[in-house]
Amino acid sequence: MMFLSNFLSNLTLSRGKAFIWDSKIKNLKIISNFSCLDLDLLIGIERQKKTIYDNTKNFAEGNFTNNALLWGSRGNGKSSLIKSVFYEINRKNKNLKLIQLNKNNIFDIEIIYEKYANLKNYNFIIFIDDLSFEKIDSDYKIIKSTLDGSIQNQPKNIVLYVTSNRRHLMPRDMIENERSSAIHTDESVEEKISLSDRFGLWIGFHNISKNEFVKIIFKYCEKFNLPFNENTEKESIKWSLQRGNRTGRSAWQFIINHAAENNKKIDF
């Protein structure tokens, strides 16, 4: 039975590079239209890029590797970086696979371990996007126990890459309230933040500078053969001001609009 299960798993994995975990059937589905940005288009996050690239390369080569928590404000390239780094390394190492696990199906992580830990010829990145907890309730405690325990017992051929807008996976005021109200303050706070401490890498993302934002616009224009001039620069800055942020996401949204205005098609 184990032989048949491994055979079917290998057959599925050989047909794709990136997958999404389907909680209903407790199995993988191939992401047939997997797409990502070129690594050189991810501007303003050079340190983060090098850290996650080196970690992933080390993992793909079969070495012990840190789990990674990519945290910070939305739209600054956390998810894009994971996908782009994976794609780049997978081009050279086809045995590296990406499994996207919806945060609502996080309880299935133990099932994934059981199914793929014995496939020693493959290495898996489990990617959980936008994980955070709004309040400490029974669900939080169950999820924390599940993920915390899984990190301690995970197979060598599986690594976790998680993105969150919060460094400790929960709002700051939850931690502060705990400090002010708990009888045994240190122990209680430590229990709340211990999950994030299980990630060997904490990689922070912050809003980029105006110069970096314009550089992203220029690189996109160069990549997609779009016009870039003084007016493009002014309009892109105006675009970011109207949205109240300068992020990779808002730069990409500007490029989509810029391409439409110039009757150009973006294809990657």
Written overview of the protein:
The protein contains ten helices and seven strands. It has helices at 2-14, 46-60, 78-90, 109-116, 138-153, 172-181, 185-197, 210-223, 230-243, 248-261; strands spanning 18-22, 27-30, 68-72, 96-100, 123-128, 158-164, 201-205. The chain is 49% helix and 14% strand. β4 (96-100), α4 (109-116) and β5 (123-128) form a beta-alpha-beta unit. It is an alpha/beta fold. It has two domains: 2-205, P-loop containing nucleotide triphosphate hydrolases (Rossmann fold, 3-Layer(aba) Sandwich); 210-261. The model is unreliable at 178-189 (pLDDT under 50). α2 packs across α3 and α8 (210-223) crosses α10 (248-261). The protein has a seven-stranded mixed β-sheet with strand order 2-1-4-5-6-3-7.
What order do the helices and strands come in, and which of them pair?
Elements: H1 2-14, E1 18-22, E2 27-30, H2 46-60, E3 68-72, H3 78-90, E4 96-100, H4 109-116, E5 123-128, H5 138-153, E6 158-164, H6 172-181, H7 185-197, E7 201-205, H8 210-223, H9 230-243, H10 248-261
Parallel strand pairs: 1-4, 3-6, 3-7, 4-5, 5-6
Antiparallel strand pairs: 1-2
Helix pairs in contact: 2-3, 6-7, 8-10, 9-10
